[in-house]
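From the shared-data thread, chain only:
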Amino acid sequence: MRMRFTAKVLVCLAFLSLAPAAQAASTYVVRFDHWSEGDERGYRDFVAALGEDGCNTVDACLHSAANPYRSSDPAGTVFESDCSDLPYVLRFYYAWKRGLPFSYEDGVLPRSGSRDFRYSRNGNYVTSRRDVAGGTQSGIAIINQISAAVSSASYRIHPDLDFPLVPDTYSPAIDPKSIRPGTLIYDPNGHLAIVYRVDPDGRIRYLDAHPDSTLTRSVYDLRFTRTVPAAGAGFKNWRPQKLVGATLRADGTLTGGHIELARNAGIADFSTEQFYGNDTRPDDAAWASGWFKLNGDITGYYDFVRAKLSGGQLHFDPIKEVHEMVLSNCSDLQYRVQAVEVAIAAGDPAPSRARAAAGQHLRHRRRLGDLLLAVARCAAEDRVQGTARRGGALRHHVRARRRSAPVLSRQRHGGRSDPDL
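Structure, as tokens:
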């Protein structure tokens, strides 16, 4: 039996409100039969600009100066998006404004029995796809349809699986040319993020959305869990699409035809190294035994990613690392306060829960103070000893404490109690 996503199944939805007259004036049309490299570069720039803007809601971002297409949106448009919908909302929005073809998976099923296909142990497979026809509907109406068809389950697909129906995304190589603005990050706990910048030192900065349509920004680290390949966790890029058999109309638009997506074998940077390592590929049951080799040494996955994206060398400044970690956690606290304020303003029936959560975050903040004291002691020891392994003791302490430190953003990045699915 085929299963489609419906509003009854979804927790994470995107809705846009618009007057009917404005919808009629904003019809989605197709003018090109594929996404060129220039289009992909334009999309990367589009995502990067939104990420750098500092806007804190989906609506604010798409109405900000960072969006060069904002003036073409019908008056009164309100953009609201959340977690798994955000990648599709931004990707289709760009396709709409540029006249590009668009197809998406509108149904998946678990590969084996599961009560909730968002957390299926053996992942999912695509059961149906929809090619978006040009010239028939407004872009707003199509975004609503896409949002009602996708959830975090849409990303929970084994990286090898591209038959009989192809999923929308693929697993890219861990390389600066592949991990870039617009790349998706899937947390198997049920959260999605979008890369908007990769720093010269390999640090990945991402943008993500939440149930109240707020947007937050943070850095990629071990909070994004690795797990069995069948869950499809990690980095994902959009597959190339090509419209085949369309008819060119007198007005320059394309109609009819069907869209074909590239399979894994036809994608130059397709790779499963993020799941199995870059040495001999182990069986799925032994996926965690895969090695990540860098310059002849074996390294951990997260260090491997940082090093590869920084050009092949791991640039680790312990003081800077702690500084970035503290900034990230402080941002989490600020975002949490913002969420509490939004909930109270909206008449949350249980504001005490929100305040209790905020209090818990303050307790975590005090634990961060302990971490900083430990870092200061280690830094002082390194300076006094003048060891050749400069930063070695500090790095050890930072990593050890980081493993035991509270994950302040778990309410944002997963956990089955997270409504952001």
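The two ends are 23 Å apart (CA to CA).
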